[in-house]
């Protein structure tokens, strides 16, 4: 027997015009001829329906990130790297978004964290004429997309706050095409730009701030090649506060004589769970995805990771950090977790478990994965440079799967297949701490009283003369730190600008 239920809504028209209607098709063809549908083709190629009633912001952003071909740097499922709503959780827990939705400022934060170039505007900060210019510019190209935050009620639609990308513009009728990600509810539709502006020019009761729009474009390079900051554990709040607030206060509270004293104070005061905060970006893949050979793409990424790691280890700061860590008593809990003696199999086992969670689509779930077996091998195929490969069998109770982790490394020419025959230069505590010190805002060290020491430190932590790859890596981490600082202070809806670095 047929059951009564809700299957879509009737699109209120006017003010909207159904994209698939005769009039909607006519507008589409005219807009193509006018050159303001160039952004449509990539967006429609990645058009998706939000998977949860409150995921309109996440669906809009993942759709735009995919259309811009921004690499998430980690796999979605199987061998595929692809933005999905479940991967957009660095600024707000997914469960909270599922329950309450997401604010405009938090979505901007997510776009920054995902590595996109973002410009965001609230309607009380800009005019409708400026908005129209931005819509026309993005509609006339495929390298920039607009995500609009608006109130559905202005369109006589059911619901309140909503996010959707703008797919194009009709100059003659001054209308914008909204690619509504709630496709179970309303189809794509044209609306007068003046009414869209009115719908955006409303106040979100949850934040007390005006809605608006964001311009999302592709950066010149994918960020986070080797390092990234993690918000997967609640400890990130304390870690971000320590780096951004406590460290500057610590360095100006004492009269230091040399840099080792500074490192002692900074590192011995690290929060106990600091090791969960900064991670190296691992290349994880299923063993059954193919043979043990590397694709050209994997080789290219691994080469870049190794170059970044090499550049870190060639800095003067790295030598200071290595000397400090070697002198630290192994019982010092605040640094032992990040020391150079990190055991690669142990590190890889954790990475393999996390990779298995992602590949199984169970990330952040209650199910726990553990490594039953870990083996380090050196992979050398067709005369290529040897690559360190960590293989593991990961078990989640009922099933098991083989996982490989490609590790940035440097080996001797004669490389066997045992861990003792490979000289690994995988990211460890010394280079991670080095990069993190470089990523701190320059004003962190302004409180050093000793002028000679201050000059020495400024020379060691300056990013000005770093090689390009390392400089971009460091500045990406610095942007992440600033974004997390906003999150920690609940300022994501107050400050929409790109982090000042």
Brief characterization of the structure:
This is Phytochelatin Synthase, Glutathione gamma-glutamylcysteinyltransferase. By secondary structure, the chain is an alpha+beta fold.
Describe the protein in words.
With 501 residues, this protein is an alpha+beta fold. It has helices at residues 22-33, 38-45, 56-67, 94-100, 104-113, 128-139, 193-200, 236-253, 259-268, 296-313, 316-327, 333-336, 344-359, 429-439, 451-461, 468-488, and strands at residues 17-18, 117-122, 144-151, 161-170, 175-178, 189-192, 203-204, 209-210, 212-217, 227-229, 278-280, 283-286, 370-379, 387-395, 400-407. Helices cover 38% and strands 16% of the residues. The strands form four sheets. The chain has a seven-stranded antiparallel sheet with strand order 1-6-5-4-3-9-2, with helices on both faces. The longest helix is centred in the last third of the chain and has 21 residues, at 468-488. It is globular.
